[in-house]
C-alpha cells in the first residue's frame, strides 16, 4: 500500500511528485482511495481550510464559432441542437452578476464563444464590467477566446480580475482535439493576461481519449504556467460533436484526477467544473476533499446542478462558502 500521507508531506515541504508517483495516483486501487483523498485533503486544508469558492457562468454569446474543437457543441463542425445567439447586451450581463451575487458566488464568469472578441463585443463586456464593479463586491472572470495584448489591457483597465483560457489537453494530444488553433496560441493568451496583471485561469478537459501521461503533462503544464485557478472539466460528450459517444470516465477515476492536480498544484484553486454531475455522480461531495472550488448553476450549453443543492452539499460536508472580497 502506498504511503500517500508521506507523499503529501513531501509536497507541503515544497517538493514535486515524481512521474511514477503521479501514475500511482491515477492508478490508485479503489481500496486505497479514501487514504488518497485524505492525503490530498491534507494539502488542500493547509492552503484553504474547509472553504469552498463558488463560481457562476453566463454564456453571453452561443454558437457561431469558427473553431473546430471536438468537444464543443458550439464548434463549426458540431450539429448539436443548441441555442445560437450573438453577444448579449450590457444590461443582461449586469443582471447575471446580480443573480451570481444572490447565489453567494464569489466569481462571475463572462464567457463568449468564438476565436476571439470583436471590438464591439469587447466594448460591451468592458462596459458591463465597469457597471458590475460599481454595484457588487464580486470578482469578474472573462473568457472570450484568444486575445491581442491591447485587448488584455482594455479588460484589465475595465476591472476584470481574472481571465480564463484553458489549455484543455496536453500539447501532445492537442491536434487530436482541434486543428484551427495551436496549443501555443492558448499558452500565449494566458501569458498576455499575466503580463497586464490579470490573474490567469487555465484548466483542462479530462476524458477526451487522452493517456494518463497526457493528464500528468496537463497538470505539470499548468504548474509551469503558474495558473492561479485550474478548472477541471470532465467530458460530457454531446451528441453532434466530434467526441460524441466517448465514455471513458468513472467517478473514482475522476476523484484520482482531482487528487493528482492537488498534489502537483498544491496551493492553487482547483475547481470541479463542467461534467461533474454526470461523471462524479453520487461521489460529488468527495471531490471537495482535493478541490476547493466549484461552478454553480448551468454551464455553457449543458445544465448544472441547482445552485441551492450545491449550498446544501457544502453545508453537509461541514465546509463553508468562501466569500471572496476584492482584497483577496
Q: Name the helix and strand elements from N-terminus to C-terminus, one letter apiece.
A: HHHEHEHEHEHEEHEHEHEHE
Given helix and strand content, the structural type is alpha/beta
Please tally the helical runs, counting DSSP H or I stretches of 4 or more residues: 11
- Evaluate the radius of gyration: 19 Å
Beta-strand residue percentage = 5-15%
Mean pLDDT level:
92
Distance between the termini: 40 Å
Low-confidence stretches: 299-304
Overall shape: globular
Portion in helices: 25-40%
Largest sheet report? 10 strands, parallel
Number of strands: 10
List the main descriptive attributes of the protein structure presented here:
10 strands, 328 residues, 10-stranded parallel sheet, alpha/beta
Task: Describe the overall structure.
This protein has 328 residues and is α/β, with parallel strands linked by helices. The chain contains eleven helices and ten strands. Helix 5 (119-135) links the parallel strand 2 and strand 3 (139-143). The longest helix is centred in the middle third of the chain and has 17 residues, at 119-135. Mean pLDDT is 92; it is low at 299-304.
Amino acid at each position: 500500500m502506498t504511503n500517500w500521507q508521506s507523499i503529501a508531506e513531501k509536497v507541503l515541504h515544497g517538493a514535486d511528485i515524481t512521474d511514477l508517483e503521479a501514475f500511482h495516483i491515477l492508478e490508485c486501487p479503489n481500496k486505497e482511495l479514501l487514504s488518497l483523498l485524505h492525503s490530498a485533503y491534507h494539502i488542500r486544508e493547509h492552503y484553504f481550510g474547509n472553504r469552498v469558492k463558488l463560481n457562476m457562468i453566463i454564456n453571453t454569446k452561443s454558437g457561431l464559432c469558427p473553431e473546430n474543437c471536438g468537444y464543443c457543441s458550439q464548434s463549426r463542425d458540431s450539429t448539436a441542437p443548441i441555442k445560437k445567439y450573438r453577444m448579449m447586451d450590457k444590461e443582461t450581463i449586469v443582471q447575471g452578476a446580480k443573480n451570481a451575487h444572490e447565489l453567494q458566488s464569489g466569481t462571475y464568469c463572462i464567457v463568449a464563444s468564438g476565436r476571439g472578441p470583436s471590438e464591439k463585443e469587447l466594448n460591451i463586456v468592458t462596459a458591463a464590467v465597469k457597471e458590475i464593479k460599481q454595484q457588487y463586491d464580486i470578482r469578474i472572470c472573462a473568457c472570450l477566446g484568444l486575445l491581442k495584448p491591447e485587448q488584455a489591457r482594455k479588460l484589465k483597465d475595465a476591472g476584470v480580475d481574472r481571465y480564463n483560457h484553458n489549455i484543455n489537453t496536453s500539447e501532445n494530444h492537442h491536434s487530436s482535439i482541434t486543428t484551427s488553433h495551436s496549443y501555443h496560441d492558448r499558452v500565449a493568451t494566458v501569458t498576455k493576461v499575466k503580463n497586464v496583471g490579470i490573474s490567469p485561469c487555465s484548466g483542462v478537459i479530462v476524458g477526451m481519449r487522452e493517456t494518463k501521461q497526457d493528464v500528468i503533462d496537463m497538470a505539470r503544464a499548468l504548474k509551469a504556467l503558474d495558473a492561479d485557478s485550474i478548472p477541471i472539466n470532465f467530458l460530457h460528450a454531446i451528441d453532434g460533436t466530434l467526441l460524441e459517444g466517448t465514455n471513458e470516465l468513472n467517478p473514482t477515476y475522476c476523484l484520482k484526477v482531482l487528487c493528482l492536480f492537488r498534489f502537483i498544484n498544491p496551493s492553487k484553486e482547483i475547481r470541479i467544473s463542467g461534467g461533474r454531475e454526470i461523471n462524479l455522480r453520487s461521489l460529488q461531495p468527495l471531490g471537495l476533499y482535493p478541490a476547493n472550488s466549484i461552478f454553480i448553476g448551468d454551464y455553457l450549453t449543458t445544465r448544472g446542478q441547482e445552485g441551492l443543492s450545491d449550498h446544501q452539499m457544502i453545508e453537509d460536508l461541514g465546509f463553508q462558502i468562501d466569500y471572496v472580497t476584492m482584497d483577496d
